[in-house]
Specification:
132 residues, mainly beta, 7-stranded mixed sheet, 4-stranded antiparallel sheet, 11 strands, 8% helix, globular
Protein backbone atom coordinates (compact mmCIF):
# COMPACT_ATOMS: atom_id res chain seq x y z
CA UNK A 1 0.00 0.00 0.00
CA UNK A 2 1.53 3.26 -1.12
CA UNK A 3 1.42 6.00 1.47
CA UNK A 4 2.45 9.55 0.96
CA UNK A 5 3.74 10.93 4.22
CA UNK A 6 3.33 14.63 4.76
CA UNK A 7 4.91 16.94 7.28
CA UNK A 8 5.51 20.59 7.93
CA UNK A 9 2.14 22.16 8.64
CA UNK A 10 1.28 24.28 11.64
CA UNK A 11 0.20 27.64 12.98
CA UNK A 12 2.09 30.67 11.74
CA UNK A 13 1.71 34.43 11.65
CA UNK A 14 0.80 36.35 8.52
CA UNK A 15 3.97 37.09 6.57
CA UNK A 16 5.77 33.99 7.80
CA UNK A 17 7.16 31.17 5.71
CA UNK A 18 6.49 27.46 5.91
CA UNK A 19 7.73 24.42 4.04
CA UNK A 20 5.62 21.34 3.53
CA UNK A 21 7.18 17.98 2.70
CA UNK A 22 5.80 14.83 1.12
CA UNK A 23 7.49 11.51 0.46
CA UNK A 24 6.76 7.87 -0.26
CA UNK A 25 9.65 5.65 0.65
CA UNK A 26 10.58 3.25 -2.11
CA UNK A 27 8.29 4.73 -4.74
CA UNK A 28 8.84 7.16 -7.57
CA UNK A 29 6.01 8.82 -9.44
CA UNK A 30 5.73 10.83 -12.59
CA UNK A 31 3.89 13.82 -11.16
CA UNK A 32 3.57 15.17 -7.66
CA UNK A 33 0.92 17.73 -6.91
CA UNK A 34 -0.07 19.99 -4.06
CA UNK A 35 -3.69 20.86 -3.37
CA UNK A 36 -5.45 22.63 -0.56
CA UNK A 37 -8.93 22.53 0.84
CA UNK A 38 -11.01 24.61 3.22
CA UNK A 39 -14.25 23.45 4.88
CA UNK A 40 -17.14 23.25 2.46
CA UNK A 41 -14.95 23.91 -0.55
CA UNK A 42 -13.55 21.68 -3.26
CA UNK A 43 -9.92 20.72 -3.22
CA UNK A 44 -7.96 23.45 -5.00
CA UNK A 45 -4.87 23.01 -7.13
CA UNK A 46 -1.77 24.77 -5.86
CA UNK A 47 1.25 23.47 -7.76
CA UNK A 48 2.75 20.36 -9.33
CA UNK A 49 6.11 19.06 -10.43
CA UNK A 50 6.89 16.60 -13.16
CA UNK A 51 9.55 13.88 -13.06
CA UNK A 52 11.89 16.07 -15.15
CA UNK A 53 11.55 19.06 -12.82
CA UNK A 54 9.04 21.03 -14.83
CA UNK A 55 6.57 22.82 -12.61
CA UNK A 56 3.08 24.16 -12.91
CA UNK A 57 1.30 26.43 -10.47
CA UNK A 58 -1.98 28.24 -10.19
CA UNK A 59 -1.01 31.89 -10.36
CA UNK A 60 -4.13 33.03 -8.52
CA UNK A 61 -3.27 30.76 -5.61
CA UNK A 62 0.51 31.02 -5.60
CA UNK A 63 0.86 34.70 -6.54
CA UNK A 64 4.61 34.30 -6.76
CA UNK A 65 4.88 33.21 -3.12
CA UNK A 66 4.94 29.41 -3.35
CA UNK A 67 7.49 27.16 -4.98
CA UNK A 68 7.30 23.42 -5.60
CA UNK A 69 10.49 21.37 -5.77
CA UNK A 70 11.71 17.83 -5.27
CA UNK A 71 14.74 16.01 -4.01
CA UNK A 72 15.61 12.71 -5.69
CA UNK A 73 17.40 10.75 -3.04
CA UNK A 74 18.13 7.03 -3.20
CA UNK A 75 14.87 5.07 -2.78
CA UNK A 76 12.85 8.16 -1.95
CA UNK A 77 11.62 11.27 -3.67
CA UNK A 78 10.70 14.11 -1.35
CA UNK A 79 8.53 16.87 -2.70
CA UNK A 80 8.41 20.28 -1.09
CA UNK A 81 6.03 23.19 -1.15
CA UNK A 82 7.85 26.27 0.06
CA UNK A 83 5.46 29.01 1.04
CA UNK A 84 6.41 32.61 1.74
CA UNK A 85 4.48 35.71 2.76
CA UNK A 86 1.63 33.61 4.07
CA UNK A 87 -1.77 35.21 4.44
CA UNK A 88 -4.89 34.29 6.37
CA UNK A 89 -6.47 33.22 3.06
CA UNK A 90 -3.83 30.50 2.81
CA UNK A 91 -5.31 28.74 5.81
CA UNK A 92 -6.35 25.27 4.65
CA UNK A 93 -5.54 21.61 4.77
CA UNK A 94 -2.78 20.97 2.28
CA UNK A 95 -2.56 17.64 0.47
CA UNK A 96 0.17 16.15 -1.64
CA UNK A 97 -0.70 13.70 -4.37
CA UNK A 98 1.09 11.44 -6.82
CA UNK A 99 0.25 10.42 -10.37
CA UNK A 100 1.75 7.22 -11.75
CA UNK A 101 1.04 7.89 -15.41
CA UNK A 102 4.13 9.06 -17.21
CA UNK A 103 3.79 12.26 -19.16
CA UNK A 104 6.18 14.52 -20.97
CA UNK A 105 6.42 18.22 -20.58
CA UNK A 106 3.89 20.46 -22.19
CA UNK A 107 0.32 21.75 -22.18
CA UNK A 108 -1.24 18.31 -21.82
CA UNK A 109 0.69 17.64 -18.65
CA UNK A 110 0.01 21.09 -17.23
CA UNK A 111 -3.72 20.61 -17.73
CA UNK A 112 -3.65 17.11 -16.29
CA UNK A 113 -1.69 18.16 -13.22
CA UNK A 114 -4.47 20.52 -12.14
CA UNK A 115 -7.16 17.87 -11.75
CA UNK A 116 -7.57 15.85 -8.56
CA UNK A 117 -9.03 12.98 -10.56
CA UNK A 118 -5.73 12.29 -12.27
CA UNK A 119 -3.86 11.44 -9.10
CA UNK A 120 -3.54 7.91 -7.82
CA UNK A 121 -2.31 8.46 -4.29
CA UNK A 122 -2.86 11.11 -1.64
CA UNK A 123 -1.19 12.17 1.53
CA UNK A 124 -3.05 12.43 4.79
CA UNK A 125 -3.24 16.20 4.65
CA UNK A 126 -1.60 18.74 6.89
CA UNK A 127 -3.24 21.76 8.45
CA UNK A 128 -1.77 25.17 7.75
CA UNK A 129 -3.25 27.97 9.81
CA UNK A 130 -2.18 31.55 9.24
CA UNK A 131 -3.20 34.05 11.88
CA UNK A 132 -3.54 37.68 10.91
Amino acid sequence: QVQLAQSGGGLVQAGDSLRLSCSAFGYTFSTYGWFRQTPGQEREFVAAILWNGETEADPDVVKGRFTVSKDNAKNTVTVYLQMHSLKADDTAVYYCAADEDRYGSGPAWRARARSTGNYDYWGQGTQVTVSS
